[in-house]
Write a structure and sequence with these properties.
Radius of gyration: 17 Å
Bound molecules: zinc ion
Structural class: alpha+beta
Strand content: 5-15%
Largest sheet: 3 strands, mixed
CATH architecture: Orthogonal Bundle
Strand order of the largest sheet: 4-3-5
Distance between the termini: 28 Å
Mean pLDDT: 91
CATH topology: Arc Repressor Mutant, subunit A
């Protein structure tokens, strides 16, 4: 797999969605978790594009085609999807994006284009382990490390 999966503009996005839903079914079957209709709807909504969606964007989208879901049930569904590795949280934006990485072999760095808002995942390699051990050298034991980069994607850079 390509180390940095920036989705190409104009690609067949229905393929991304299909692939993600298939992965969701498999992940849930493997872990014995239930992909309830709400969890599935939330996943589809997050996966609508490669841009990050806030919880309230998701609520608005779901409210267009059905009853307005309660924020707490959306947050719970998002938590579940994160646990299954299907959705990532963009901490700096308090928003969520569907995983495009397939299998995770370690930590991922999220790359966020501040122009078009597209989000891609990059394999962090040893970078997170390196940060963790530097922190440990300072006597700090970390349990959560978030690495996010904001900048300009190749497509937006080309237009400039
Ligand atoms: Zn796509
Ligand atoms: Zn991912
Ligand atoms: Zn861009």
């Amino acid at each position: 797999m390509h180390p940095t999966a920036f989705p190409k503009p104009g690609h067949d996005h229905s393929h991304c969605t299909r692939e993600l839903l298939m992965r969701a079914e498999q992940a849930c079957a493997a872990s014995g978790a239930r992909l309830t209709p709400l969890r599935r709807k939330v996943l589809k909504s997050v996966a609508e594009s490669h841009h990050a969606s806030g919880a309230y964007d998701i609520i608005e989208r779901l409210a267009r085609t059905g009853p307005r879901p309660a924020p707490i049930s959306i947050y719970r569904a998002l938590e579940f999807l994160q646990d299954q590795g299907l959705v990532h949280k963009i901490e700096s934006r308090n928003a969520f994006v569907a995983c495009t990485h397939g299998e995770h072999n370690g930590d991922a760095v999220m790359l966020i284009c501040s122009d078009c808002g597209i989000v891609a995942e990059m394999d962090a390699g040893d970078a997170v382990a390196e940060l963790t051990s530097r922190a440990a050298a300072l006597g700090f034991s970390s349990n959560v490390t978030v690495v996010e980069m904001t900048g300009c994607c190749g497509e937006c850079g080309r237009d400039a």
